[in-house]
Amino acid sequence: MHALTTCLRTALAGGVLASAVAIASPAAQAADNPVSGKGPAAAAAAAPSLTEIAARLPKVGPQDVIKLAASQVGISENSAGGGTKFQEWYMTSPRARETLARDGGALQEYENAPWCDMFVSWVGEQLGIQPVMGSDAYTVEHARWFADHGRWGRTPKPGAVVFFSWSGSKKIGDIQHVGFVVRDNGDGTIRTVEGNTGNGAVEARTRPAWQVAGYGYPVYPAELAS
């Protein structure tokens, strides 16, 4: 069964960063060429780090992400669960073809698929920091991308990507929803901006922290010099 039922398998997607790193590194591409005599280990060693990638991106910080995400509050899906610009954008993105190859299904299925992670990915793409925020339609794989890059934790920070499991599970495989952290309220709750929440809209929400499976921390270019 492929995945287009909940934000847990928010459509069919994976961590765009893996491909972005490969594209950014000619050495990594050459390492996969059998003519070069180098293998995957050499490719991984040659690939630039997220920090190196971030240094070449627009000087975007957490507040830029929060501002853009919050500006989308009120956008909602149609009666079929689609019709948002976030779904439309994802369907035209190169990432959609990659996640289709990974997860199966058909491109058109994204049109009415749960779009919480498409919203997160859209924000990163609009600000030019997709390579250091990741991009996906499947929340579980997006969270794994952060974990694989050493950018996963339990502390709410403004601009962090927050992954939810409604049961309170801390297992990445149990993640069902995603959004952005606006602030830690200091009372056991966090303020967020999320897509595909409530009645299928972008909304600002207050969530109990116990529902958080974990946080992904993008490498913000604006913070590198601080």
TrEMBL record:
It comes from Microbispora amethystogenes. PROSITE patterns: CHAP. Residues 1-30 form the signal peptide. Keywords: Signal. Residues 91-219 form the Peptidase C51 domain. This is Peptidase C51 domain-containing protein. Coiled coil: none annotated. The keyword Zinc does not apply.
